[in-house]
């Protein structure tokens, strides 16, 4: 079946502009995660959605970052007034749950964001 | 100090060698993940484990909960195994993953 998809695959923008990154999780996966991988650095958590629960936004680096998940499926990560330090690969992942536990996470191909 | 530490950071080996990558963590976890990232490629989940040992093909992952340590082994390594291997933990009471900095593995033919 289809995996996690993300769009666009690459985005180049000018400093100060807003960008929207999209994630389509695997159908039926109720958990959705956004991560960021900056050049030369490791992966860091941004935000997590599970069903209709309030999202865990504890990883968002500033109030310029926000995300929403509509209808429990597609998610959009929005970065307002982009800065050069926002340049990174933004990764989305989804997973299903069983009972009290979560299954492995399936990652999308990522969106490479470059802020000039 | 990072909550998740991996070693080595870089590893170069000859084809056929037995590979071990280590991961230590300092927090209570509900699960540990091993991920693989090829150059320019996406991230693939290799294992999710909370106890014992799992095997998939030439890959073996073990975890010792008491010692807060996990290892990823690759038997009969092959150049296509060249990638960055990332350890990530899911902390108790929190569903997000906390990542190690990764181990860059290069297998020379």
Task: Write up this protein.
The complex is a heterodimer of chains A (116) and B (109). With 116 residues, chain A is mainly β. In chain A, 0% of the residues lie in helices and 49% in strands. In chain A, strands 2, 4, 5, 8, 11 and 12 form a 6-stranded mixed β-sheet that branches. A 4-stranded antiparallel β-sheet of chain A has the order 1-3-7-6, with no helix packed on it. The radius of gyration of chain A is 14 Å and the shape is globular. Chain A starts with a strand and ends with a strand. Chain B is an all-beta fold. In chain B, a hairpin with a 4-residue loop joins β7 (59-64) and β8 (69-74). The chains are: A mainly beta (116), B mainly beta (109). The A-B interface holds A 31, 33, 35, 41-45, 48, 50, 56, 58-59, 91, 93, 101-110 and B 30-31, 33, 35, 42-45, 47-48, 86, 88, 90, 94-102.
Helical amount among residues of chain A, as a percent range? under 10%
Overall 3D shape of chain A: globular
Instruction: Evaluate the radius of gyration of chain B.
Output: 13 Å
Can you give the mean pLDDT of chain B?
Answer: 93
Q: Can you summarize the main beta sheet of chain B?
A: 6 strands, mixed
Q: Note the gap between the termini of chain B.
A: 36 Å
Which word captures the global form of chain B?
Answer: globular
What is the residue-averaged pLDDT of chain A?
Answer: 91
Descriptors for this entry?
heterodimer, A: 116 residues, four-stranded antiparallel β-sheet, B: six-stranded mixed β-sheet, globular
Offer a quick outline of the entry.
The complex is a heterodimer of chains A (116) and B (109). By secondary structure, chain A is mostly beta strands.
List the helices and strands and how they pair.
The complex is a heterodimer of chains A (116) and B (109).
Chain A: E1 5-7, E2 10-13, E3 19-24, E4 31-37, E5 43-50, E6 65-69, E7 75-79, E8 88-95, E9 97-98, E10 101-102, E11 106-107, E12 111-115
Parallel strand pairs in A: 2-12
Antiparallel strand pairs in A: 1-3, 3-7, 4-5, 4-8, 6-7, 8-11, 8-12, 9-10
Chain B: E1 4-7, E2 10-14, E3 19-25, E4 29-37, E5 43-49, E6 52-56, E7 59-64, E8 69-74, E9 83-91, E10 97-99, E11 103-108
Parallel strand pairs in B: 2-11
Antiparallel strand pairs in B: 1-3, 3-8, 4-5, 4-9, 6-7, 7-8, 9-10, 9-11
């Amino acid at each position: 079946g289809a995996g996690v998809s993300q769009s666009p695959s690459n985005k180049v923008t000018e400093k100060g502009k807003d960008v929207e990154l999209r994630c389509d999780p695997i159908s039926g996966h109720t958990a959705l995660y956004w991560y960021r991988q900056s050049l030369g650095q490791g992966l860091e958590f941004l935000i997590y959605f599970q069903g209709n629960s309030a999202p865990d936004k504890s990883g968002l680096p500033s109030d310029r970052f926000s995300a929403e998940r509509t209808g429990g499926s597609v998610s959009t990560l929005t970065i307002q007034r982009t800065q050069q330090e926002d340049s990174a690969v933004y990764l989305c992942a989804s997973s299903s749950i069983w009972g009290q536990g979560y299954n492995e996470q399936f990652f999308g191909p990522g969106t490479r964001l470059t802020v000039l | 100090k990072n909550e998740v530490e991996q070693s080595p950071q870089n590893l170069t080996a000859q084809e056929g060698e037995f590979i071990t990558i280590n991961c230590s963590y300092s927090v209570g976890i509900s699960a540990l993940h091993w991920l693989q990232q090829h150059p320019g490629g996406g991230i693939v989940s290799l294992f999710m484990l909370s106890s014992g040992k799992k095997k998939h093909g030439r890959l073996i992952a073990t975890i010792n909960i008491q010692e807060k340590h996990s290892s990823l082994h690759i038997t009969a390594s092959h150049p296509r195994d060249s990638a960055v291997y990332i350890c990530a933990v899911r902390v108790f009471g929190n569903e997000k993953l906390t990542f190690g900095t990764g181990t860059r593995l290069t297998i020379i033919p």
